[in-house]
Amino acid sequence: MKKARAVAACLAASLLAAGCGSGGQAGSAGGDAFSLAIKSDPGLLDPALVQNTTTYTALSLAYDTLVDIGSDGRVVSGLADKWDVKPSSVTFTLRRDAVCADGSPVTPSTIAANVAHITDPATKSPAYGVVVPEGLTARADDAAGTVTLSTPQPFAFILQSTRYLFMVCGAGLKNRSLLRNGTSGSGPFRLTSARPDQSYTFTRRKDYTWGPGGVTAADPAMPGSVVLKVVGSESTAANLLLSHQLNAAQFAGPDRARVTHVPGLTTTVQPNGTQEFFFHQGQGHPGHDPAVRTALLQAVDLHALGEIATGGTGVPPTGLVMPPRPCPGDTVRGHLPAFDPRAAAAALEAAGWHRSGDGVRRKDGRRLTIRMIYGTSAGETMAAAAEYLADAWKKAGADVRLRALSDASYSEVEAVTQDWDVDWAPLGVTLPTQLLGALSGPFTPDGGNFAHLTDRKYEQLTAAADKLPGTSGCAKWAQSESALFDSADLVPVVDKTLTTAAHDATFRITAGLLDPTSIRMTGAGK
User: Fold this and answer.
1) Distances from the Cα of 3 to the Cαs of 350, 447, 449, in angstroms?
2) Which of 239, 372, 441, 444 is 20 to 30 Å apart from 192, CA to CA?
3) Where are the beta strands (DSSP E) in 464-521?
4) Helix, strand, coil shares of the chain as percentages rounded to 5?
């Protein structure tokens, strides 16, 4: 599978909604420990080799990053308390008090060593080229306390991208094998117990004074430990939460109803990634013709499709980047065609696709065949959405063939054999630059452009935006997204939502990552 899609999907799946709660004593989960359900084992704990969606949660407890993102989307201090941003570089001034869990100092050379490892081709880091920009280099000046990260070309969000660059320090920096099932970071917690497929316990470091925005671990309401419990079933997680054997859990399916409006539990609901589909625009595919793409969209009630795809729990999409976005605003509204089956039929006729005796449209003797792929892991609502989409297109005169694929076989079909015309492929990203490899550039297998998109307007706008540092290019980034929708290159259908339920605790998730310094126990005695 192309790297851009794989890591983007990983980021999307790791997005957590902010949760809070209060009430009585939290049973075995209460007191000085905060317990959070995670849906799968974190696996390898090396930050350079993140593959598992829950690994981001584990890493955020034990590791620091150069900067953090506040709840309003603005950059706040992390290991660095100052930074100077230029179009193709950013110089960080590090705090002098940050110390690794093994007592060794975190220096500019520590940062440079991390960058060198991730960008080394031998590492084969899945983050390189997506989360970490290609060609990134680091120059350390330990005497001055600064490290400069540079890219060969201007990179708009070079500062913000470091939010996902977890810094290994101490012994783990010299011996990466220690990170197979351990941690070696400067974060507010350190891993003290690992029981694969069961639980991971992280113990608070009382000496931690260099948190986001300067926060410390001195607050007595901050838990003495965080326990990540592997709970694969949302039904089981709901049972554990309701019996006060968990402090927090997240729900994407119907079990969210069981934990909503329950005394003692507080729930929050936030968007959890946009659900969209792509038309393959390669030669010989129906989607190669923009008139056909637009007509097929006119044949579908996208609002109804979104309701089905999320079981009625979704919200209208407003863009491709997950909140809090560096560039706020709605790039979707007004850029998708209205539901109009008659207009769809007329457009297909005008494009030369005429109905035959069996009801299927043909052009030059070729049937209007739409092969659609989607993932089985998305559950029953996704299967129902695919059927709804197929029915709408059949009514418009297409021969629709649905193909549900397992995660194991999806990448082979999507990127290698390319046996599809429509691909329901959610992209979850936190920066507009993370979309570039999947939406432009070389086609698969030479690049990450799996749908063979050639939107010149998008390419021109993103090229111009990428030369402008940070938010100064937001207008162009917004225009570039809207250009994709105007051309029906990809179709944002709905934003899925995630419900987080919490008991006897409050905490905050920002830009897809748990902020461990925000966790507070609120039960009896706190």
Assistant:
1) 39, 9, 10
2) 239
3) 490-502, 505-510, 513-521
4) 30, 25, 45
Cβ neighbours around 119 below 10 Å, total: 20
| Under 8 Å between Cβ of 374 and 406 | no
String of DSSP letters for 251-318: E-SGGGGGGTT-TT-EEEEEEEEEEEEEE--STTSGGGSHHHHHHHHHTS-HHHHHHHHHTT--B---
Those residues whose C-beta lies under 8 Å from the C-beta of residue 183, and which sit 6 or more positions away, are 45, 58, 59, 62, 63, 101, 172, 190, 191, 202
Q: Give the Å distances, CA to CA, from 322 to 402, 413, 510, 511.
A: 29, 27, 10, 7
φ/ψ (deg, to 5) at 70: -75, 170
CB 364 within 8 A of CB 394: no
Q: Are 228 and 42 in contact (CB under 8 A)?
A: yes
Amino acid at 42: P
Q: For Cα atoms 141, 143, 148, give the angle at the middle one, nearest 5 degrees.
A: 20
- Comparing CA positions, the residue from 421, 447, 423, 446 lying closest to residue 436 is 447
pLDDT digits (tens, 9 = 90+) for 425-435: 988 788 999 89
Question: Which residue in the block uniquely carries the two structure tokens 């729900």?
Answer: 251
CA distance 221 to 411: 45
Helix, strand or coil, per DSSP, at residue 506: strand
Residues 270-300 have pLDDT tens digits of: 888 899 999 999 999 999 999 999 999 999 9
Q: What residue has token string 């007329």?
A: 346
| The residue to which tokens 């005796």 are assigned | 357
C-alpha span between 2 and 114 (Å, rounded)? 24
24 and 524 Cβ atoms separated by less than 8 Å? yes
Q: Please name the residue that has the structure tokens 């986001």.
A: 212
Distance between CA 93 and CA 421 in Å, rounded? 49
C-beta separation of 8 from 263 below 8 A: no
Residue 268 Cα to chain centre, angstroms: 19
Strand residue runs (E) in 129-265: 137-141, 146-150, 189-195, 199-204, 225-230, 248-251
Q: How much is the pTM?
A: 0.83
Q: What is the DSSP string of 65-124?
A: -SEEE-TTS-EEESSEEEEEEETTEEEEEEPS--B-TTS-B--HHHHHHHHHHHH-TTT-
493 neighbors 317 (Cβ within 8 angstroms): yes
Pairing of strands 89-94, 146-150: antiparallel
> Cis omega (within 30 of 0) on the bond before 445?
yes
Q: At residue 341, what is the residue type?
A: P
- Identity of the residue numbered 432: P
- C-alpha 360/C-alpha 260 separation (Å) is 47
**List of residues 6+ apart from 220 with CB closer than 8 A:** none
Q: What is the pLDDT of residues 30-58, one digit of tens each?
A: 348 999 999 889 988 999 998 666 898 99
